[in-house]
Amino acid sequence: MHDGGKILTGLAVFLVLALLPFWHNAVGGTAAAPQPKIVTQEKACVAPRETIRSTHMELLNSWRDTVVREGTRTYVDAKGQTVNMSLTNTCLSCHPNKKEFCDACHNYLAVSPYCWDCHVEKKESA
Amino acid sequence: MERERRALLKLAGLTVVGLAGGALARTAEASSKHAAKPGTKRLAMVIDPRKCLENDGCTDCIGACHAVHNVPPIDDPRHEVKWIWKEKFSGAFPDQEAEYVDEALTSKPVLVFCNHCDNPPCVRVCPTQATWRRDDGIVMMDWHRCIGCRYCVAGCPYGSRSFNWVDPRPFLKSPTPDFPTRTKGVVEKCTFCDERIGKGQQPACVEACKEKALVFGDLNDPDSAVRQTLRARFALRRKAGLGTRPAIHYLV
Prior knowledge:
The complex is a heterodimer. Chain A contains 6 helices and 2 strands; from the N terminus they run H-H-H-E-E-H-H-H. Chain A is elongated and about 75 Å long. Chain A is mainly α. Helix content of chain A is 55%, strand content 5%. By secondary structure, chain B is α+β, with helices and mostly antiparallel strands. The interface between A and B is medium-sized, with 13 and 19 residues.
């Protein structure tokens, strides 16, 4: 019954391994939050910036249902303008830099939306 | 004892009447489903095979459809995806005994695609409502919701549905950004160009046909081109005996 040393060593190894992400950040510093690059000439989005940041996925889901299930393709935005509900042709027409705009945050947060498995990503002109 | 028996018989009688009433109501509901709702459209197409054959071997409609909908050109018959294609006459109309009918018609392939049935078996078997019948008669697909079970493929008596056994993207050299591609594991078929109809355009195949062999319109409008054509000439529907009530009519 003199295994205290082994147990403590084991615990130490476990803590080092299990908390590795924290050590990594403590030593190397945290990754900087991405700054999505906005390249559009348009003055405003279909909704205020904060709304879009927090709930763009919900807006896109409701666009999807409205277009596919109800057959309605136009959306009246916060400013009363009518836009075509289309990820590729409306969202990406203002934000053609998908890598710097969409992917920057998605990669940072480790989310992988499957929108682009089907929806065509326009060729980036830049 | 006597009273209990009487009550039981009454209850049993009422139950039978209730059940019969419910069943009758359901039957009535089912039969009224096919009746046109006032103010709604019933989109349909009329195909004139003779006009189609004027330019034998033409595939303009197929090319136009497959281009605007990002349908991948996969040669392997196990994996092929098709929305509109040509079928042998005997394959398209297996129930037509066309022994002495003009060979000019029966020896040539027939243009076939989704029939957008009034009573679509594919919709009935879909467990997720990924395919459903719109009020205007279009049997639509929601690729977001399709789980790839292929019940609809088995249910469709016309073979109108294709399954994506492989990722279609590598087969598309320059997909049009106006329409999504599909992904591996979903079923796809003709949607009567719902995206074009929504903009007031004709389906891509109709627009592409130089011979004007395809006529598209609303069956509920007695003056529409489809109704006028159907009044003037006799037309067949594929496997009409199955009771699916297809919306694609073939002039004879």
